[in-house]
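Below is a filled-in request sheet from our internal design queue. Each sheet records the structural input a requester submitted and the sequence that came back. We keep these sheets so that new team members can see what a complete request looks like end to end.

REQUESTER: design group, bay 2
PRIORITY: normal
MODE: inverse folding
CHAIN LENGTH: 187
BACKBONE (tokenized):
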């Protein structure tokens, strides 16, 4: 099956979270898939993010992460995931995780002393993460109960439960339906 960066993959509501969500089933050792492990997919992310990310207007056109920057970019992604996941789960910020994230952000910013145009994805991600650290409503940050992706709930009454209703919401509904049916049916 060929892979493509669809709208569903940009439901994080923040570029930093879309990047964190490039790991599918992060906590499932057998099915975990890193969409950035393949360079072509990582590179294609730039064009897709420029069109589909909720923050696209802040960045405009985006350039792929240079291959020599790839490992730093992955370290940044992992620091983003660890810090914000911990924030959602505990309601608190972990100083050590914050330090690791700030170091990854600083290391990325330092690599671009001149403002490159178009902006590389790693630089845009570092800026997006910095913004998200100090967002005024931290309780809008959520974890999808179906796929464990991180997302910002921008709905008016903060009622969004799923990263993407059309994907995770419907899957969860179907599972519930199946379970109910099985309960009532013959064993
Ligand atoms: Zn989900």
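RETURNED SEQUENCE:
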């Amino acid at each position: 099956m060929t892979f493509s960066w669809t709208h569903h993959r940009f439901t994080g509501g923040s570029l930093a979270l879309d990047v964190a969500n490039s790991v599918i089933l992060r906590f499932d050792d057998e099915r975990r898939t890193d969409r950035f492990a393949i360079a072509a997919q990582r590179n294609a992310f730039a064009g897709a993010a420029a069109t589909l990310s909720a923050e696209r207007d802040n960045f405009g056109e985006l350039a792929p992460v240079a291959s020599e920057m790839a490992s730093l970019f992955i370290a940044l992604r992992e620091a983003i995931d660890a810090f914000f996941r911990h924030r959602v789960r505990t309601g608190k910020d972990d100083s050590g995780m914050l330090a690791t994230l700030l170091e990854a952000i600083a290391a990325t910013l330092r690599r671009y002393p001149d403002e490159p145009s178009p902006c590389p994805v790693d630089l845009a991600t570092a800026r997006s993460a910095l913004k998200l650290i100090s967002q005024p409503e931290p309780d809008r940050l959520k974890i999808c109960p179906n796929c464990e992706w991180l997302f910002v709930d921008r709905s008016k009454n903060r009622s969004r439960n799923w990263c993407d209703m059309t994907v995770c919401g419907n899957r969860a509904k179907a599972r519930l339906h199946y379970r109910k049916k099985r309960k009532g049916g013959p064993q």
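SHEET NOTES:
- The longest strand covers residues 141-143.
- Strands lie at 23-24, 33-34, 62-63, 119-120, 141-143, 150-152.
FILED BY: M.R.
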